[in-house]
Amino acid sequence: GSLALALVWEHGRTEVWHFAVVVGWQLLQTLELCQGARARIVSVCSQGASLVWCEERPPLDAHSDMSKCAFRFCVCTRALEVGEQGVRLGTVRIVLHNSPEYQVLASPQHVFLVPATASFATTSKFLLIWHPEEAKLTITAPSAGFTHSKVLCSSSQSDFRKLLLGSVGLLAGLAPLDIHTSAVSNSGGLLLVSTKGTVNMLEPDGTQRHVFDLEGGPLAQGSPVQLKTFGSILACILAGILYLVDQNSGRLIEKKILSMKEVHFLESPGEEDSIQLLTQTGIYSFSFSRPEDSSRPEPCLVEMVFEEACKYYQRRSLSSSKLTVEKLKKGGVFQAPVALAAILQHSLRQKQKPARGLQDTYAKLLGTMSLELQSYMSLELLKACVVCAPENEVESYCEELVEQEVSRILHSDMDKDNLAYLNSVFASFPKAAWKATRSCLQLQQNGDGLLIARATPEVWKKVLGGPQQEEVGQNGVVPLFELICASFLRFKPKWLPSFVELTQQYVSISWAYSSKEGPEGRVPLYKRALGVLARKSKRGEADDEMELELLLCSRRPKAVLQALHLLIRLKRWQRVVEVAEKFSKLSPLLNKEIFTTLLAEFAQHRELDPYLETLWPLCPAELTASDILTVVLQHLPCSQEDPVPFSSEGNQLTVGLLKPLLQRVVQRPCVQDEMYSDALQSPTFPPPTP
Fold first, then answer.
1. What's the whole-number average pLDDT of the chain?
2. For the chain, which terminal residue's Cβ has fewer other Cβ atoms within 10 angstroms, N or C?
């Protein structure tokens, strides 16, 4: 009863209509949407109980600069309330002013602002997403993986040019958007069709994923493309052909040739298995729910075999011609997908019956693949259990399902698609993914409390040698090592340094030091783990301790010195001395750096005085008394007053504090004395003739 229809004219006049079963359509009220008399509405949509529109505000001066005239548009919103007392418009709220022309498209929670024209190159390189509940605008360039959000606290921040102020340099190098058609899906994302016929889904957070490629090559500017989603099915009409595509997998379900080209989709709420089509001759319903056909078991699975085979052979082909499923089935060149399809159709139809009617070669292959087929059948059974299980059992089934998926991917090729899929699994089921990771890597603590892993070398190579950050782009996908580190930080943070140490041990065995093929040849593993730690939204004392442990577990000289400086900055002197004592044994050069650093600290304050008996034995053999005095004099604190013999503060460095160290250095035998000690202590003089 509260639904209303608003008809909005270009000059802002708005008629609000209401439909009653008895009397039909009734005009409730006529209103003025815009405040200015010269405003012209170019695009409008409804978002919740509000109207959102983009209006043109012509400049007062007819001879204004053309560059200023381009930014003469304004995006506004206004609440529209329909009640018993009539229709009431709320106050006008400006979302964005001094902007170029935008087409506004509303989803239930967000409003997408798509550039209407490409006359100005800079503004046609990105889209805007307005989040009304958070009062936030997101700038996104999906093809480049660029996303930046800004909260609009005041009206001054709604200025388009101020919004772009911090991103102009990044956006300048991007290519203009390639958008032929756009439409909002029922899931809240924005469907974008490029002039090449590629259909992508832009999510409200600014990330983009590929859905489908339309046939027929590049699209002409005048050729209309209609998009509509029904549940998980994407319906698309192009040149009189209806395409039905699974949004989740991108698989073409059905393709129908329509008898007429002028067809429009109708809203059909509650009906997700049929499409309502409006044509010149009437309204038609098209059902795409397919009954179970026992004569063709698992047709989707068999089709997937050929689609995967197309991708596989195309990547390895030197020919420029595109390989299709039809060519693969008819060609007879590639026998592997044909054999696999025959085995799947035969075995899945007969379930547990013995293989009959297969070629001898196929029968042998079926015997080899029997375990894999059983695994697939158990996975399908598990999926059915998840769907039918009560709420209290769903979690355990999901954990088992996630473990099987993670294990399957870790034992297959780790390409970009598999990595993106793993990212989505870790994001959707974080706890189950953590348990699956522990199981696949066989992580556990031994009797001494040390972390051990019994993973196979193949699994380790997947964890460390998969696609890296520069290869996967910036679209929210991170490499597998970073995914696992994030899980450690969330569920078992104290194990993370031990895990990084384990991975370093495996790297040292499998790859030569600084090998460019290995992970350490790019960015060191401890730095990658530190990058995951730095991405945490909230940082506390535990994170400082974690940073220290990650630096120290690397055992790299620069990392150890960085940890030492961090401890000095935190004034944790007991830990400073412990680290110095432990890591000075790694190398003479690191020993010298550590001792010189602590000697400089000792010259500046008296905090290290209680630990001098532990520090002085760390003095390197090559340091002389003059070297020590030079370091001390260089780091003495500058005094503002004239020096006096006896300071009342009691924090000055005295010769008495340095005396034990200087005595140790002076009394140490010289290197040359040690070299000739045997000759000097010879019992006979002169020594015997050789």
1. 79
2. C
